[in-house]
């Protein structure tokens, strides 16, 4: 996989936003897979700035969710549908019709998972999927020991993930749902380009295991090693545990003509 070490989160956001803009220049109706949380916000802010400056055209772009909480009422501000509408769809000037996501309010959650996998396939597949990584190495909500061939399904959150996400619920872990719908690792790997963004020292060990460690269900993000076009963008803090950090810096610096990733 490609590993790009950037000075800070803003630089990472700009790099990935330019990659998305470049993709949209080649394929105006590209399907962009988006992640939630604080890490990808610089990406969305940089892409929205490009749209306002006329440097990116999102008029035909589509976006899709990586995951969704189960059981939050429709319109809940921390449902991932609400978050994506607020942080991605609206700033990019997209309509809700350009947005695909699983139904976390469905009575039959298993059927909703199957329906979402079908919807992604019928949409032509994801062109670029943005990912984050958990401190335990999870991607999406594929917790450690998830099957590397898994499809979109319901998962039970670990206590650590609920603790990590409590900050979005006023710090109250009791408000964090216990279950989610998540694209499975097998579903994620079908995207044409995977881009993982990680910032901060807290992610350093997980990044090192995903990039340099063995392929293991204990580190779901290590599945990116199987993908033909996976890019990992990390700031200096998140790169601090990489044994090959100097090599990755030199490799990227040797390609000054690269535009995006």
UniProtKB/TrEMBL annotation:
Chemical reaction(s) catalysed: alpha-D-glucosamine 6-phosphate + H2O = beta-D-fructose 6-phosphate + NH4(+)
GO CC annotations on file: cytoplasm
Enzyme class: hydrolase
Domain Glucosamine/galactosamine-6-phosphate isomerase, first and last residues per copy: 12-226
InterPro entries tied to this protein: Glc/Gal-6P_isomerase, Glucosamine6P_isomerase, Glucosamine6P_isomerase_CS, NagB/RpiA_transferase-like
Domain of life of the source: Bacteria
Keyword match Hydrolase: yes
The protein's annotated pathway: Amino-sugar metabolism; N-acetylneuraminate degradation; D-fructose 6-phosphate from N-acetylneuraminate: step 5/5
Pfam families: Glucosamine_iso
CDD domains named among the record's database cross-references: GlcN6P_deaminase
UniProt keyword terms in alphabetical order: Allosteric enzyme, Carbohydrate metabolism, Hydrolase
Coiled-coil zones: none
Catalytic residues in the record: 67, 136, 138, 143
Annotated site residue numbers, Part of the allosteric site: 146, 153, 155-156
Gene3D superfamilies associated with the record: 3.40.50.1360
Protein EC: 3.5.99.6
GO biological process terms on file: carbohydrate metabolic process; glucosamine catabolic process; N-acetylglucosamine catabolic process; N-acetylneuraminate catabolic process
Function description: Catalyzes the reversible isomerization-deamination of glucosamine 6-phosphate (GlcN6P) to form fructose 6-phosphate (Fru6P) and ammonium ion.
Name of the protein described by the UniProt record: Glucosamine-6-phosphate deaminase
Lineage: Bacteria, Bacillati, Actinomycetota, Actinomycetes, Kitasatosporales
């Amino acid at each position: 996989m490609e590993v790009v070490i950037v000075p800070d989160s803003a630089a990472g956001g700009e790099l990935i936003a330019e990659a998305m803009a470049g993709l949209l220049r080649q394929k105006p109706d590209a399907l962009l897979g988006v992640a939630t949380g604080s890490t990808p916000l610089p990406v969305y802010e940089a892409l929205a700035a490009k749209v306002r400056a006329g440097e990116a055209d999102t008029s035909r772009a589509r976006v899709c969710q990586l995951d969704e909480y189960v059981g939050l009422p429709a319109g809940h501000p921390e449902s991932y549908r609400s978050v994506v509408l607020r942080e991605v769809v609206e700033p990019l000037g997209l309509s809700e019709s350009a947005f695909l996501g699983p139904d976390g309010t469905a009575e039959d959650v298993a059927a909703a998972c199957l329906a979402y996998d079908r919807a992604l396939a019928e949409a032509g597949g994801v062109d670029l999927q943005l990912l984050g990584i958990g401190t335990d190495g999870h991607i999406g909500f594929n917790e450690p020991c998830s099957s590397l061939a898994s499809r979109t399904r319901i998962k039970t959150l670990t206590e650590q993930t609920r603790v990590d996400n409590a900050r979005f619920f006023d710090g109250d872990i009791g408000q964090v749902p216990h279950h989610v719908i998540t694209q499975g690792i097998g579903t994620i790997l079908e995207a044409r380009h995977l881009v993982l963004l990680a910032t901060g020292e807290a992610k350093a060990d997980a990044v090192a295991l995903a990039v340099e460690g063995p392929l293991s269900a204990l580190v779901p993000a290590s599945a990116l090693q199987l993908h033909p076009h996976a890019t990992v963008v990390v700031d200096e803090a998140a790169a601090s545990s990489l044994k090959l950090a100097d090599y990755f810096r030199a490799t990227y610096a040797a390609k000054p003509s690269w535009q995006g990733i």
